[in-house]
Design brief:
5 helices, 26% helix, 4-stranded mixed β-sheet
Length: 300
Amino acid sequence: MIRRKCIQKIFRTTICLFLILVVSTITNLSNKTIPVMVNIEDVTMVGNTSIYLLNDNGYFVKKPVYLSSNDLCENVRKVISYLKISNCSDSSFVGLLEDSLEVLNVYYDEFYLTIDLSCDLYESNDLNSSVVSIVYSLMEFNNIKGITILVEGEYLKDYPKILDKSIAINPSYEINSRDDVNRVVVYYMTNDDGNNYYVPVTKYLNDSRDKINIVIDELSSNSSIDLVSVVNRDLELINSREENDVFVLNFNKSLFDSNNKVLEEVLYCISYSVFDNYDVSMVLFQVEGKNVGNIEKKCL
């Protein structure tokens, strides 16, 4: 009898200790920061790709949209429809393509996309802006290295046969000589219709430094008058390197805000800028050599 009571007491004690250990383990895990891989399109609004439309201030803005199909050609046609004038009539954005514009054919072959449009493309009030909108929007698809635009079977007049993001978007010229001219794309932010959007600016500067150094300096100095940068003015890039398709950025502690966190908008402004200037698939963020997060380019 006494032995049975002892065994029961030992069993109850063991169970209690086990429960205490489980609760303690869960509590410790909840207090730890677990690194999370973030896809580049996981922004504040729903969307699995982006299109580029003009806002009220005349800037091309990166606007998330949702595509339900897995068929590339069908998605290309849908994107072109999003860029038409009538599809933006009830928003803060301006579409540039005529409603009568038709997509005659779409071809894809080894990273290069060809789109054949009707002659209505030439009816656009601003042909160059229309071309920029088409190219940047279609280059959002994964594994697209170049776009060929045909108009009823003929190459687009006065443009290269293959277009890519080397075509300037929201160009800004800050040059005073022909020496050491560098072309760098920097992403800022703007607020339209109550939401924050990312705005790429193609800057031409007399600066021979690596593009990433220019990007960080431009964002931290917030030199743009009409656009916003959320990057801390004290942010410094200690060093950077490309490694196995990953761009590693090592910053000082000013990457953190006053709550010892990294703002999502800071990561995206920097990452979007990196992806438009370097051929990499991930940006790894470090603070004084320690990993604090990463942004991966999303595959469609």
